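BUG: 3D viewer hangs when loading the predicted structure for this chain

Environment: internal workstation, default settings.
Expected: structure renders.
Actual: progress bar stalls at 90%.

Input used:
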Amino acid sequence: MRKIFFTIVAMALLSFNVSAEESKEAAIRSALSALNSQVPIVAVADAPFPGLYEVTLASGEKLYVNEVGSHFIVGEVYKVQPDGRLVNLTEEGKKAQRIEQVAAIDPQDMIIFPPAGETRAHLTVFTDTDCFYCRKLHKEIAQINELGIEVRYLAFPRAGAGSKTHRVMDSIWCADKADQPALFTKAKSGQSIPSLSCDNSPVMSQYALGQKMGVTGTPALILPDGSLVPGYMPAGQLAQMLGVAN
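Structure tokens produced before the viewer hung:
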């Protein structure tokens, strides 16, 4: 009988805690929505330190709020390690999100340049067909592949919807899969390619995803650990960063 009693009490406490947490989440959502009914809250979770909750918006931005949503902080949170090093907890959370977001992309929607031999590492790159440093990076694609690095390109037309770059990238992504790498390389070298369009082009959805991930320019490199590295990087330096340097 005593065992049954304690089991019932434990279940009641668990139910109370779950209800209390749900109530706090509801309060936070309600308070932030009261500021702006269009606030796109994706998730509410415990912050990586006691006393606050972490709210993730659809834009990828994070807020740190109290349990009733009456006060919030916008910014990055750092933790001081015992050895004095600083760890950016906000960025660590974003890295985990980026890994999930990249994993959810259908490889058929990427322009992929694989090594001829063993794939020792991979790199996801948000790119624009016209930007100087995007072209500079792609000129080294053979060298990058020789190092065992697979490059997976995603579209990020910096000038946005309806721009010339958007139309060019649509033409590439709407082409037959087997033709895409050659068309991509031609566009990167400044050559004209046949104009194509299709209803299922992923170009603008990838552009929106890049913005959520924090991409503001191209090329933007997403490493396997979810790190976002902006800008061009030579093949040898990429190999070192990915741990495949000879």
